[in-house]
Write a structure and sequence with these properties.
mainly alpha; 5-stranded parallel sheet; two-stranded antiparallel ribbon; 7 strands
């Protein structure tokens, strides 16, 4: 009965988009359990949650068993192991928050791709986790993931080249592959209306018949069919071109699971579903609704668990505040649509940006406060150092003051002695001055007498010179002529 309820939810409930329709479906199931099966719904719905089944609880390497998830913690542990294995094997690391809604969606995707020729249509707004959950479900199932790399001038021929690689991988290599495709990757040229229809036409053909018309040139197709000819003969098939081609397409469909992600807010969403019925008829729909408050709280808690972001006792309140802000924004967007007829979409990406923005702002504010605190500490240390220096300077100043006082006393004593000496010197100076005056008078008198003597000398000098001349004449030298003769002359 629990498995029946689970499958009813997967087939019918997952296609419903409004809360009213889903509540009505739950009411119908409960009525059928009571009246049709005679079972108390309370025994089936634990904590008002429908039963959930999956086939990967036993981990990789074990035989898949489609069994009920009795404890969500058991499922979370299995998925955490799957995330670790995915991160170890891939270059891009996955940081996925495993709240209840995300795990339920992952089980639904896993159920779809595990089914033979199972294809999925994941409908939800951007950031709801469709592609991340698909990648994880593919990794848990042991399948290969295949995506296209969209360039600026991505055209239909580029898309078909990628499809050739995909078909070879699924048919020739026989690898179970999940083709993850988003409507934004095949949006076409935005300046040309309906330019994406050629892409959706190929996707629709892949879903309905598995065949993309004229995908391979005849010579390439012939080489591919020759590679699978032996397998077809072993399977009891006739090796004719038509049979081999159909066998080629069947092998592709058996190994290929297409997961198409589309957004309901796209203006062409309804038109695409009407124009290409294979998108609905050949897929299992999983509708990604708004994240419940519990999921938002878990996402916020995972973001705030980073080291140094939030104190443990404050983290719960912060999570509730972020959830309240997100839900208040949703309510304001609804009011804007009602009053102004203007649609504003508040997506899970917006909530994640809110959490990241809070963390960035908190880190920025903390850095600013830390810088201010460091400046304050530096100023405090500088004040302390200055205070210590001032204390040392005060001690040195006191010592110098004492020395100065002692020097001042010595100076005062010396000054008294200097004053006494000065007074004595003044008295001596007075005596010297009086003696100098006397000497100057004597000098003037002597100078006067010297001048008078010189004048008298000048007056008698002629007489003196005459006397000297007379004396010189009186004392003339004798006649030396006789001295030259040996013998005196005769008388």
């Amino acid at each position: 009965i629990r498995l029946w309820v689970h499958e009813c939810y997967r087939v019918f409930h997952d296609r419903l988009i409004s809360p009213e329709d889903r509540d009505e479906f739950k009411k119908i199931i409960r009525e059928q359990l009571n009246s049709g099966l005679g079972t108390n719904p309370a025994k089936i719905f634990r904590n008002d949650q429908a039963p959930l089944f999956c086939d990967f609880l036993r981990g990789p390497g074990s035989k898949p068993e489609y069994e009920e998830v009795k404890e969500m913690e058991t499922l979370k542990r299995a998925l955490r192991d799957g995330i670790e294995a995915y991160n170890d094997a891939g270059a891009v690391q996955m940081q996925l928050v495993l709240f209840v809604d995300a795990m339920q969606h992952l089980c639904r995707i896993s159920r779809i791709i595990r089914r033979p020729r199972g294809n999925a249509l994941l409908v939800g707004i951007g950031g709801s986790g469709r592609q991340s959950l698909t990648r994880l479900a593919t990794s848990v199932a042991g399948y290969q993931i295949f995506t296209i790399e969209v360039t600026r001038n991505f055209q239909l021929k580029d898309f078909r080249e990628a499809m050739k690689t995909l078909y070879k991988q699924t048919c020739i290599d026989k690898k179970e592959t999940v083709f993850l495709l988003s409507d934004t990757q095949i949006a076409g040229d935005p300046t040309k209306p309906n330019s994406s229809d050629v892409f959706f036409e190929d996707v629709n053909n892949m879903l309905t018949s598995g065949e993309i018309p004229n995908l391979f040139p005849p010579e390439d197709l012939g080489r591919l069919l020759s590679l699978i000819k032996d397998d077809a003969i072993k399977g009891g098939l006739s090796p004719t071109p038509d049979v081999l081609y159909q066998y080629f397409i069947d092998r592709v469909r058996d190994n290929l699971h297409l997961v198409l992600c589309m957004s309901p807010v796209s203006p062409t969403f309804r038109a695409k579903l009407r124009n290409f019925p294979g998108l609905v008829n050949c897929t299992t729909i999983d509708w990604f609704s708004e994240w419940p408050p519990e999921a938002l709280a878990e996402v916020a808690d995972s973001v705030l668990q980073a080291p140094g972001l939030a104190v443990e006792e404050h983290r719960r309140a912060l999570c509730q505040m972020l959830v309240w802000a997100h839900q208040a924004t949703i309510e304001e967007a609804r009011r804007m649509k009602f009053e102004l007829q203007r649609q504003v979409y508040v997506t899970p990406t917006s909530f994640r940006e809110l959490c990241d923005g809070y963390c960035s702002l908190l880190t920025e504010k903390r850095d600013r406060i830390n810088r201010a605190a460091q400046k304050l500490r530096n100023g405090r240390d500088m004040l302390k150092t200055t205070s210590d220096d001032i204390a040392c300077m005060k001690i040195d100043l006191d010592r110098r003051n004492k020395e100065a006082t002692k020097k001042q006393e010595e100076c005062d004593e010396l000054l008294v002695k200097v004053v006494a000496d000065r007074m004595q010197a003044d008295e001596q100076a007075k005596k010297v001055a009086s003696e100098q005056d006397r000497i100057e008078v004597e000098t003037a008198r002597a100078l006067k007498e010297y001048e008078e003597a010189n004048a008298d000398m000048e007056r008698v000098k002629p007489e003196l010179d005459a006397a000297k001349e007379a004396v010189r004449c009186l004392t003339a030298p004798p006649d030396r002529r006789g001295a030259r003769l040996r013998d005196p002359p005769g008388p």
